[in-house]
Automatic annotation (TrEMBL):
Keywords: Heme, Iron, Metal-binding, Monooxygenase, Oxidoreductase. This is Cytochrome P450. Gene3D superfamilies: Cytochrome P450. Signal peptide: none annotated. InterPro entries: Cyt_P450, Cyt_P450_B, Cyt_P450_CS, Cyt_P450_sf. The keyword Transmembrane does not apply. Belongs to the cytochrome P450 family. The keyword Repeat does not apply. It comes from Streptomyces clavifer. SUPFAM superfamilies: Cytochrome P450.
Amino acid sequence: MTKTLSRLNAPEHTCQRRSLGNLFDRATIERMTPHVDREVTRLLDTLAEQLRSGGADFAQTVSEQLPIGTIGSWLSLPSEDHPHLLEITHNQVYAQELLPTRSQLAVSAGATKQLRTYFTELIRQRRAAPGDDVLSGWIRTWDELEPDRYAADEALYRLTMFITIASLETTATLLSSAVWHLLDEPSRWTWLRENPEHVEAAIDEALRYDPPIHINTRVAAADTVLAGVPVAKDSMVHVMYGAANHDPRRNPDPHIFDLLRAGSHLSFGGGAHYCLGASLARLETRSMLTQLLSRFPTLRVVSPPVFASRMVFRRVTSLGVAI
Ligand code: HEM
């Protein structure tokens, strides 16, 4: 992971990011919208069936499935591979936690190997049969940028693997947490149904209130002073997004979930490393909430979210709902 996009510095970081261009610019998001809408409809049909026969687990039925369906179709990853990719992503994440146990690190190391095998083979196959898909485009770009085929494939492996795993748990957590915070107080659900133009604001408040990534870790490249705090070269800094979002100097009464707050948050990071998939995560959440609000006016939570025992990456493993 130390060589993936989020851990690189300029000039390597700049070069890799430029090679991708603006992945989810307005035109791409518009092009992807009908597909995401259809995928949401399909998942909500399944949810509806489960709700008719009792209760349903929103996290497993919808939140877990939408991000892999979206990124999988965008990168043309065969749908039969999706469950395997979800499993290895969940297992890999331990290595990025603050205090993993030895056995968690072993699970993570195994998952990293599986990711290497999967994405190396994917790139090999795409090279053998290139098309007009996103990954074939990256292969063409990297073959021009990098004369050494081995180095090009290494960069392609890291980018494709990292973008895939960066998109999955993060978005799934936002989907569940947005639904949980809206249903936790039924008047919020009713109000948003009547005022759907505030769906974007609801997404930002969910991101602020309980960000999918709580901590990002950096190492100081030089002696510096950060917000009045001296930081010595080589010391490790844990940037606490959750705490920053709850700073009352930025967001008064931060513990209140307020749909009309129009507050600020750092949940997608900032600067050169700002999240590359923020607009895609927003599109998925907007589409899901818009359809969910209109199709399930009486939706309610029957068992509160269960969170995986983690510090850095939030993960909701179940959220029981009924109508
Ligand atoms: C709600 C969903 C998401 C959240 C909360 C989130 C959050 C973040 C955060 C906090 C960072 C680190 C930013 C920094 O270091 O300043 C990041 C980076 C990144 N994210 Fe996301 N992300 C989400 C969804 C996605 C999606 C859908 C994709 C891809 C399709 C994606 C791809 C990336 C990549 C590639 C980076 C590394 C960017 C770089 O270092 O230049 N993320 N994200």
